[in-house]
Amino acid sequence: MNRLGYRSPATFDKDAREFYNVIHKYLMESYKGKVPLRNLSADGTLGGPFATHLHTPLVGQHFHGLGSAVEAIPGLTPFQREISILVTAAKYRANYAVAAHLVKGPAVGFAKEDIESIMEGTCPQSLGPDGVAIYKAADHLVNRPGTLPQTLYDSLLAHVGVDGTKHLIHLVGFYSYLMVVLNGFDVQAPEDAAA
């Protein structure tokens, strides 16, 4: 559930219908037709962050477009991406995002203990040199004010290159926005989130 409630496809105006069609296509392609109920119910109702964006579909269109563009930046593996997402989730503690990435983390190679360490604010050394560089930069961006120090920026460049550095910074910014939206509208993890 969320504070704005769910919108049935029968209630959509033109903007909501356009956003819904884009997200429905995205979900069907991403999950190959087997979309988890937390994102799309049997009656076609959108869940999670998509449900909140149906209340502001023009923002939702841009949100989805930005997310797709950030995802398309090369330079990070799924495992490396997940490090920065988990660090951001540890900062904001958005219920829905934490539940989703407790499931996604192991799917991209995380040990349970490493996820727990990140969620507690500790960098697991098992991440390797590139993972530690990613963790430290993401941690600074979400937990400390001011500019990312040159030493952390240079460490990112050395470990993941220019593309990976761009990807990480945009990814942390995107997920920070997403988690503020999830927290502001109190988007809860569904009961099937651990399934």
TrEMBL record:
Domain of life: Eukaryota
UniProt-listed InterPro entries: AhpD-like (IPR029032)
Protein name (Swiss-Prot/TrEMBL): Carboxymuconolactone decarboxylase-like domain-containing protein
The species this protein was found in: Sporothrix curviconia
